[in-house]
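Thread title: Can someone regenerate the structure for this chain?

I was given the following input by a collaborator and told the matching structure tokens would be attached. They weren't. Posting the sequence so someone can regenerate them.
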Amino acid sequence: MRGFRKIAFGIGALLGGAGGKARRERIVEEGEPSPGAELWFVALLLLSAAFAVGFIFVYATGGLPHRTQFEGIALGGSLLFLAAALILMSKKLVVSEELPEDYPLPHSEEQEQVAQIVRESGSRFTRKRLVGGALGACASALGLAFIAPAVSFGPVFDPYELNQTPWRRGKRLVSEDGAPIKASDIEENTFYTAYPEHSTRKDIAAPLVLVRLPTQALRLPRSRRNWAPQGILAYSKICTHAGCAISLYRKPTFPPVQPRPALVCPCHYSTFDPADGGSVIFGPAGRNLPQLPLMIDGAGHLRAAGLMSGPVGPSWWGVRLTRAKYQER
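Best answer:
Regenerated them for you:
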């Protein structure tokens, strides 16, 4: 407790300067200046700030190997140097003053005594501007380091990047092992996952689900009449409720008593009808699954015939704000 009090007094003296009412008699004896300790204090604060800036740099560099370990080293080093600086200040730069009992605060006279003790405890500081600047730099860098991870909640500078997808007209569909997918490979009553060729799979808009239905069972909007060649349909694999992956395909085993085929999200059981443009038929999802128009090239491979019918991802991250950019086809 005594160490924390000395640190608080030292910072208070440093920030408060020599302001306030001066008393004729000192309460705390004036300490001998210690320029060397001051320089070490400044150096430790600047090292703490440098490591905090390093944490921000590592955090912002997504492709750095062993990123988590470097983040831990940077943030831990920053806090370690800050702790060392505060210990040094407590031991070498703050004059100790012990009172036999706690400070009484109900009366203005006692309050003024406490304020005077705080001012006089920093008498060893001779470079207050330098030390104050270093302390401000350290506090700012550490504050930014603690705020920086909030960027991971979503794009800050360009929120519309959530609406960008790697899908363009002519982009070929490939399987999980990178092999091009032929229309003849897609069978009815089977669930497939596809990705855009030569594009990153980390993009949330990259994965698709593929299913084949009898052409007479399709109930697509008139504007999407040519989106499902040979009854093959492609939808975003990302549920529009909470962003989970669509990974279940319900197909009727006994058609007279079971409902029609559907794509199901296992997280909250949002259920989508592939025959009807990915419309929601059950669950908490707030909008339909975005559909990708397909075409078959001369080699029988499946390719994108255009853009997604709407923004990919959960409704709550702003897709409704830009839906004018995506016209239902």
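The first helix runs from residue 2 to 16.
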